[in-house]
Write a structure and sequence with these properties.
The complex is a heterodimer of chains A (294) and B (721). Chain A is an alpha+beta fold and 294 residues long. In chain A, 43% of the residues lie in helices and 20% in strands. In chain A, helix 6 packs antiparallel against helix 7 and helix 6 runs parallel beside helix 8. Chain A is globular, with a radius of gyration of 19 Å. Chain B contains 27 helices and 18 strands. The chains are: A alpha+beta (294), B alpha+beta (721).
Amino acid sequence: MHFQDIISTLNRFWADRGCLLLQPYDTEKGAGTMSPHTVLRAIGPEPWAVAYPEPCRRPTDGRYGDNPNRAQHYFQYQVLIKPSPDGIQETYLASLEALGIRAADHDIRFVEDNWESPTLGAWGVGWEVWLDGMEVTQFTYFQQCGGLDCRPVSIEITYGLERLAMYLQDVESIWELSWNSERTYGDIWLPFEKGQCTYNFEASSAERLFQLFALYEAEATELVERRLPAPALDYVLKCSHTFNLLEARGVISVTERTATIARIRHLAKQVAEIWLQEREALGFPLLKPQAVRA
Amino acid sequence: MATFLLEIGTEELPADFVRLALPQLEAAVRRDLADLRLAHGSVRSLGTPRRLAIQVEQLPAGQDDLVEERKGPPLAQAIVDGRPTAAATGFARRWGIEASELEIRETPKGAFVFAQYRRIGRPSSELLVERIPSWITELQGRRFMRWGQGVMRFSRPVRWLVALLDTQLLELQLEGSDPALHSSRDSRGHRLETTAVPIAHAADYVTALAAAGVQVDGSERARWIRQALGKAAEERGAHPELPSELFDELVDLVESPSLIEGSLDERFLALPPEVLSTVMRLHQRYVPLVATEASWDPLALSSEGRLLPCFLCIGNGLEAAADTVRRGNERVLKARLADAEFFWRADRSQRSESRLADLDRVTFAEGLGSLLDRTNRLEWLTDLLLELLPLEGDGAAHARRAARLCKHDLVSQLVGEFPELQGVIGAKLLLAEGEPRGVALAVLEHYLPRGAGDGLPTSGAGAVVALAERLEVLLSIFAKGERPTGSSDPYALRRAGNGMLQILWERGWPLDLGRLLSRASAHWQSLFPAFGVRAEDLANDLSQLLRQRLVSLLEEQGFAPDLVQAVAGETVPLGRLISDPTDALGRARLLAELRLEGRLAAVQAVVQRASRLAERACLASDVLSPEGVVDPSLFESPSEQGVLDVLLGLHSAATGAQRGRYRQLAAGLAEGAAALAAFFDGDISVMVMGDDPAVRGNRLNLLAVLRNQASVLADFSRLSG
């Protein structure tokens, strides 16, 4: 199954179960969770069910395309359903079956893995899903987001698309994955990977990144004060990504790291609060019965 | 007699929760059955990642009736003129009987009325239904969660509930779960079984689940797994590398264990064995195989000859798919090892010494500079230690070189990937570059002990650098003004203190920590003027910490708390303890030995008797000789000379430094019992508190010197009986 077909299969699968199909959000982020479709929608009482692919950037994971298993830019497929429905594990297993991975033919296991995002003030409880020993999915019941208790609880399912694809296509390098019948993953992404790594590790200016961080932080702070959660989140995400770029340069010390993460978390919590207030002021408009089949 | 079954069906539980929850569940069930007066046969707790269950045999159908009796008012107040009074009728009503049913009985305090009433026993089924919910909600574990719209908290979502008494369904509902959860007789089998598994009879549970592909008995899975791993290893002339944490986890990670035997490309044996083991055990929960004949070299660069190019893995059933599962697992391992190989090659292509520059870019802690600054301070301390603890042969040179290079691997790619291998990787990279084994070993060992129960450095150079490493963090963090608190010790300073003492004890090094700390503190004061710390305060605070660590380590070693206080407690001068921390251990051992042999009490009696009066003497506690403070010309009785002879006999043991002096001191004190008895009681005894101040002072000084001499061994006043 080609990479693009995996995405369209998952789209079809989750759409059939009542999920909204959305597109990637246009700000750099370290994980699909950071998209407002997850991080904001997991907050508050309104039901929500969404599925989307999301590119992720983790500058420190870059290896100039030399490593077959690592890249600083890759894709997640993200599902978020609130409230978490009964039988969601079985639904997830059915989604693997849609990709051609039958439970009877593989050792699929849910192994404890609790997720925490210090920058988002979020944590949850769940598993990593092992497919014959390979972690292919992160499965999390959100307990807190932006420092707020999640009531009801959302279930987040994050598929590692490259890992699944490598398994399905039986190839040993990300770069050899077929995107469609003509082009490989490497054809498309390798030039970007090399260039981005050079930027992340060599060409970026730590001084300017620190300046950018300060500017983004100021912007986010002001937007929080003006009670504009949507653009405030954008700038929190920019802070987070800039911080990751600084880390890739190795200029963030252990203690500075903790302190900076705390600053971003402080902002993320405020964004969560003003988002919840905004929804409340609107009377939680999505709070009407909605059927999600699990 | 009936069998009771409760099964709590869940989404996959963390492996350690199954292990921790089952004993809690069993204890709660036993407690409540006793409380409910329900006798029973065996109680069996069963569990897998998807269920916790308990099976109780031979439960009665219900409670026996209970006849109870209550004492009422005295007869005189209960029945007046042959008629029950208001007090009597009220009492009878309270216990649900008629006043006419009250019985009159004589007691030592006179006649009273008594009420006897019968509590009708209730059916077991009813009682169980009432108690089951609390058995579930009482369970404790870490990181509990909510799910859906529910308010219930549990380790993972509860999805079904089976509650049976023989064939009878115990109907109950679990509050707060989303969706609402009602008990039924439908269990679920292995994930591959798509239909429910009805349990017809509570006693059928284990067999019904076995038919549905689930071995519910954890001890059976454990037995199977241990045997399968052992057999597979033996067939290959190897033994499984299977620490208990891994084994326990494997047992509760599957519902139906199966053995998968995978292999890996022999080229990966070129990697250090710790790398292979870490990937296999910690990341993948595979069991590595160690060749039976293999010797253990902590500095081995490759796994050749030690590890076999294969691994064992416990799968979750699925024998039919065994081949796919094996290939899948081999693939994952290959990818992970290829990563490790990539890092190992990259790290080896750079000289370790050149990584020191990178250390300068990593901050150690705010105000304390970079990891390179820390390394420089650590080298300074190593030099100082080597002045006080001369090492033989190349030891000193190896220690100095190791101190310089001990942190280089913190910026290596492999340690970035496997932080738990710090030190190990650093040592091997150095050895591969041609550094002497002694240097590499010291780098590896300078992290030891990592915690309680861990091994200690085997080389002198390793021990010195390990001491320097711990001293550095203690001095730096204390200089900054931070102290460990009850709940928070982010730099593991207590562990650092413990480590220093353990190393000194094991080496038997008589290191004067007081001298060391005073010189080092002065240096730290000059290094960090901004902290405004005074050298004396820094040295003193660290000495206090080390005393606390000494006390707590002695207690951890099993010495009785009063004995630990006697050798190292607050009343023992700090300077003395710190000047030689192994000395306190030696004294603790001697006292423990004397106590075990029943010889401590005699010594204790002598010293305590002398000490009580000695408090009235005006003699400093450090006077250890009677010379000049006891005047024989003032003696009025031979018993005084007798005590003086004891003191003169003890003098060399109390002041000397010879081996065995404490044993001598203890023996001398015990022998002094007779002289002291003559002094206090009997024909030639004296009145210590006599009228003549000079004679009195002289006698008090005799006792004070004895007390002082004894305190060289221990503060006997801290010993309990």
